[in-house]
Amino acid sequence: DELCEFYSIHNHCKVPVDYTINPSLAQWVMEQRKQCRLMNERQPHTFTKKRLNLLRQINFFVKWNSGETQDENWLQRYNELKDFLERDAAEGNEKKRTRARIMNRLKTENADLHAWVQRQKDIYSGKRKATRPADALTIKRREMM
């Protein structure tokens, strides 16, 4: 149920390992991915047919390592950020728009997106290297930012 709720909000099942809103969900998802790997390696696992079918219904097994999906994922996050900033401005916060206030509000309202934005900022400034291709700031992505 919790994963379905996460999926309905974020439209994906990629729960961050450090998901502070629901750490037990993050742990559960990690365990499901481990069991999936064991199943694929034909080793003993705890998956039942019922659980497999339920997870398939919400696209739990989508591969995140293809270039097209990474671009779609990055673009989805970028659009989420644009929507957030537009809502923030529409709510009359135009005069109070400082980076710190926006980041604090984002952290409160969407910790998932906040973590993504922070990662992008760190990668852009050189504080962090992109460890996942999905986070890499291509020339096109840099221009969009």
From TrEMBL:
Transmembrane segments: none
InterPro entries: Helicase_assoc (IPR005114)
Domain Helicase-associated: 2-60
Pfam families: HA
Protein name: Helicase-associated domain-containing protein
UniProt organism field: Entomoneis paludosa
